[in-house]
Design goal:
The structure is a homodimer of 113-residue chains. Chain A has five helices and three strands; from the N terminus they run ααβααββα. Chain A binds a DNA duplex (30 and 30 nucleotides) through helix 4.
DNA sequence: TTGACAAGATACCAAAAGGTATCATATATT
DNA sequence: AATATATGATACCTTTTGGTATCTTGTCAA
């Protein structure tokens, strides 16, 4: 199977799935309840929920004949960590730019001396 | 056209594209140079680069007959902001948990009094 | 126990995605 | 000017994806 990072990114790549996460951030919901917010069949919603689960973004807990879907932080954490690499990169690039500007200013000062 | 957030998420959903970003984080590269790191045709790589560009994740700058591809922070920033919503949610949930634990401990203290 | 109701499981379909092959165009290089 | 190089643009193919329809299973309630 593909790795966790890939499954998490894949899960977030669909707008319906991100919308499901938004709903679940307000309250835990059964599959049926999630379905009522969408213009698609319960089967389709359930597929999305399964993909979100595989992406470690939600937890599906059995409760009688219902399945309670709730947000789960692991998947988002995985992605956050991946992005930290690039954020660090950009911070550095920004620092380099600031250094360059500072150097330019210094030269400018010398010129004007 | 679909919105920026969607294009950024879509762009990051493919492992080859994330790998391209990793390469570009080390140095800017032409399309040909990027292609040399992969076992696929230049045409396929170029398609990936176009999708990354649409996701606001890279910049493609013309230089003679070459195209210099470089990282661009906008797309990542868009995604980071989207995730902040959920991170905030999780922080709160964690706080609630900590509060619950604290309360439990207090009751426990009372019991033992 | 006998319907309702929530969910699981498949089979199937159209569209999108990832890839190749191929030809055209623009720019260097000699 | 002629050739080589870097890229653009398409047509085409296969697999994946998002969706429906349909049937089955598990559970609640009368």
């Amino acid at each position: 199977m593909t790795d966790n990072l890939q499954q998490s990114f894949k899960a977030l790549a669909d707008p319906s799935r991100r919308e499901i996460l938004m709903h679940l951030s307000k309250q835990d919901m059964t599959i049926k309840e999630v379905s009522e917010h969408f213009d698609m069949t319960r089967a389709a919603v359930k597929k999305h929920l399964t993909i979100l689960q595989q992406g470690n973004l939600i937890n599906i807990q059995k409760n009688g004949r219902e399945r309670i879907n709730s947000l789960k932080p692991e998947g988002l954490q995985t992605i956050t960590e991946w992005m930290d690499y690039f954020n660090k990169f950009w911070d550095q690039k920004l620092n380099n730019l600031q250094t360059a500007v500072a150097n330019y200013t210094e030269k400018d000062d010398v010129k004007n001396k």
